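#onboarding

Welcome to the new folks! Below is a worked example of what a typical request in this channel looks like: someone posts a single protein sequence, and someone else replies with the predicted structure as tokens. Don't worry about understanding the tokens yet, we'll cover that in week two.

Example request:
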Amino acid sequence: MTLVKTIYRSAYWAPQVLHWKLKLWGIQELVWFGDRGIGDDLLCTAVLREMYRRGRRDVAMMSNWPELFENLPYPKKVIPFEYGAIHCIQKAGIRTLKPVYGQEISKEPQRFLFSDRPFIQTMCESVGVEGPVENRPEICLTARERDLYREFQGSIVVQTSRRNPRFQIANKEWIPGHWEKLGSRLAGMGRLVQVGSAEDPEIAGATDLRGKTTLRQLASLLANARVFVGLEGFLMHLARAVGVPSVIIYGGRISPHQSGYIENTNLFTALPCSPCGFTNHCEYDRECMRKITPERVAEATEEILKR
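Example response:
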């Protein structure tokens, strides 16, 4: 009976395994993170770069955001994310690699334990990359793409929320009323441009580009800005990828030395409970966020503009 099952399973999987073997012909390794957040796939550009520098070049990336990897010499191929395909790809003889920087340690309430070192370094080590790595994700814009938003050169780009409809992280959100106060302070420092989702809290007086840009247009806009002001997440990583300094409101969920960049001004509140790693749960009414005032964010932004 066992032999019959083995033959049946082999016959069942054979067409799919052959499909992926042909589709990924010449590929030795496949990198995948998942489909929760675009920022994680952007961080994978650093992993792919460090693999490439070490001669591991027959690499594919599984991602729903192929535009992240345009014009880069790596990966060799990008395929759409399909969790069910990973098993078949493994059976096709291709090594699959999932970079990690933390693990879920509690589901109710949801809580993560993150690596105490920079995420990019931890992700690289998790796929066998040894030695020093550059703590910077990448996106490669063409000269034409960079010129798209030249009219906003020298602007202050602001993001007031990083809500993800599939993966809510309430503990990353700043106090809503603070954004309005901050906007009035920033307006006197330069041209404000607001990006993000169309449902994000609006800042009066800002050029409103919420929900009106593609991913690569966002990168172009940031590349022309003088500073980005926002929250820990994808746009923080994208700003670093194009070399723009940022003021990042961290609160206390995660520490800047884990996910952040030394080029930025990272506003973190050191409390006995921080960094907590909780996604949405908080017993202290998010005191870590409340202690970060609009005045503090405005002062940090002004300091960057004066450099």
